[in-house]
């Protein structure tokens, strides 16, 4: 069935469910796993007049530290259940990062969480899961 699963996480509660479910599925299928977390790039609209000179470096450091924490927890869970996984931190908008990473790693399934927002909340906040499902050419397994 599936041989290489990409699991996307942002460290949220629903993403943690996706990680657990994705790792268990990978164990059952004896599939390889790559886990990705994405940090959005610093907005281009931020100007020197509105930030301190070293803010970009602080932003990058903070995103690296947060990603290391998230991915460290995933590695621990994977080790506990006996699944080997590669972990990646990429800088890009989440939906694009997930799809590009899945393609680059020849994955055949994307597993990720969705907060399940509906109506106006979804329109205002957007949904990375919706974007991935819409734009991906491979199957996407959504955990809620």
List the keywords:
Rossmann fold; 5 helices; about 140 residues; five-stranded parallel sheet; alpha/beta
Using only C-alpha atoms, the radius of gyration works out to 16 Å
- Secondary structure category: alpha/beta
Under CATH, the homologous superfamily reads HUPs
The helix content, as a percent range, equals 40-55%
CATH architecture: 3-Layer(aba) Sandwich
Mean pLDDT: 89
Order of helices and strands: EHEHEHEHHE
Shape, principal axes of CA atoms? globular
Q: Compute the number of helices.
A: 5
Number of strands: 5
The N- and C-terminal alpha carbons lie at a distance of 23 Å
- Which fold name fills CATH's third level, the topology? Rossmann fold
Reading side by side through the largest sheet, how are the strands ordered? 3-2-1-4-5
Q: How large is the share of residues in beta strands?
A: 15-25%
- What CATH first level would be assigned? Alpha Beta
- What number of domains? 1
Pick out the low-confidence regions: none
Structure, explained:
The protein has 144 residues and is α/β, with parallel strands linked by helices. It has a single domain, classed as 3-Layer(aba) Sandwich (Rossmann fold). 49% of the residues lie in helices and 20% in strands. It has helices at residues 13-29, 55-81, 94-104, 119-125, 128-135, and strands spanning 4-8, 32-39, 85-91, 109-113, 140-143. It has a five-stranded parallel β-sheet, sandwiched between helices. Helix 1 (13-29) links the parallel strand 1 (4-8) and strand 2. It is globular, with a radius of gyration of 16 Å.
């Amino acid at each position: 069935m599936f041989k290489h699963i990409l699991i996307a996480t942002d460290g949220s509660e629903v993403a943690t469910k996706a990680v657990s479910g994705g790792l268990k599925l990978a164990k059952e299928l004896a599939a390889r796993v790559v886990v990705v977390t994405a940090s959005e790039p610093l907005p281009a609209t931020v100007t020197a007049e509105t930030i301190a000179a070293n803010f970009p470096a602080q932003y990058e450091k903070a995103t690296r530290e947060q990603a290391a924490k998230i991915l460290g927890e995933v590695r621990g869970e994977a080790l506990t259940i006996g699944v080997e996984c590669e972990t990646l931190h990429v800088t890009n908008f989440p939906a694009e990062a997930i799809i590009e990473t899945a393609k680059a790693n020849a994955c055949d399934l994307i597993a990720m969480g969705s907060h399940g927002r509906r109506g106006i909340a979804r329109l205002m906040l957007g949904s990375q899961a919706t974007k991935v499902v819409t734009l991906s050419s491979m199957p996407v397994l959504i955990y809620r």
